[in-house]
Amino acid sequence: MPTPHYGQPRYRVIAAQLRNRIESGAIPPGTPMPTENALTVEFRASRGTIRRAIAVLREDGLIGTQHGRGSHTNAMPNPKQTTLNVEEKRGVSANAELASLFGVEIGTALIESQSVTREDSRVIKVARIYRLQDAEV
Amino acid sequence: MPTPHYGQPRYRVIAAQLRNRIESGAIPPGTPMPTENALTVEFRASRGTIRRAIAVLREDGLIGTQHGRGSHTNAMPNPKQTTLNVEEKRGVSANAELASLFGVEIGTALIESQSVTREDSRVIKVARIYRLQDAEV
DNA sequence: AGAAATTTGTCCGTATGTATC
DNA sequence: AGATACATACGGACAAATTTC
Fold first, then answer.
1. CB-based contact, A137 to chain B, within 8 Å
2. Is A66 helix (H, G, I), strand (E, B) or coil?
3. CB-based contact (8 Å) between B90 and chain A?
4. Whose CA, among A69, A112, A123, B71, lies 20 to 30 Å from A93?
5. Considering only CA atoms, which of A41, A45, A21 is closest in space to residue A32?
6. Which residue is nearest to nucleotide D3 (CA to C1')?
7. Which of A106, A98, A109 has its CA nearest to residue B125?
8. Does the pTM exceed 0.85?
9. For residue A100, what is the nearest residue in chain B, using CA coordinates?
10. CA-to-C1' distance for B10 and D9, Å?
11. Which nucleotide is nearest, taking the CA of residue A46 and each C1'?
12. What is residue B18's predicted lDDT score, i.e. its pLDDT?
């Protein structure tokens, strides 16, 4: 068979279909994936191509694979929806503690960038990062 | 030829040797890597094995590859050495601002975890992450 | 501009090694 | 021990992007 890969290569097309099955819930979290052999039959693709497709899903964290056992869908790390952040920058003066850490005088100008993480609109984490003003992003 | 991969598979051994060449400066940043064909000759390995070794280096960010052109070593993003962190946790009381963000009363106990990033022993970044006490890690 | 050569990308088939059941 | 399933490796073929002539 020739090897024309118009647009998307086969392994990506197969990966997309498998991804669909997982994200749609057809293969629930924690359940085993079909074996490589079964997939070669279903998609009429060589084992190498199937393995590449599986590798894509593994890199994306959708499945895990164990030697001799097989692949299984992962329990999604974020079943709760909308864990997003917003960021905000402002200038602050170094207090005694920060001044000591940075090795500068008290009152030196710092940049504080704050990001807030929410889980279902509830704030669960606030991160503040302090840098000297001269630092390149 | 048989395919015994005692300990490390061939593609990892080859990747390690190439990595050495890059990190030692034998192949300076920004210069082209040997072609896949040249590497198959040098290491007496199949092209597939060579390609896997190259993929390892690419995933590690040491090289870049372009279709039809070849691979080239990357300019290291951090020529400065020792960008490391230390972490430290302590309990704090929510001030007005944090209390407002978390939607709790002023004075509520929070956990502050602080990490300090240094570049050549100089502090360049201080990050503070605040969470509620009930949060799971 | 166009053809040829070079180089990486995809795919197949097969064989063997290694871990698990 | 045997069967099953994933891991590594080889060789060959063709596709696609780039460079060279």
1. no
2. strand
3. no
4. A123
5. A21
6. A68
7. A98
8. no
9. B123
10. 9
11. C12
12. 98
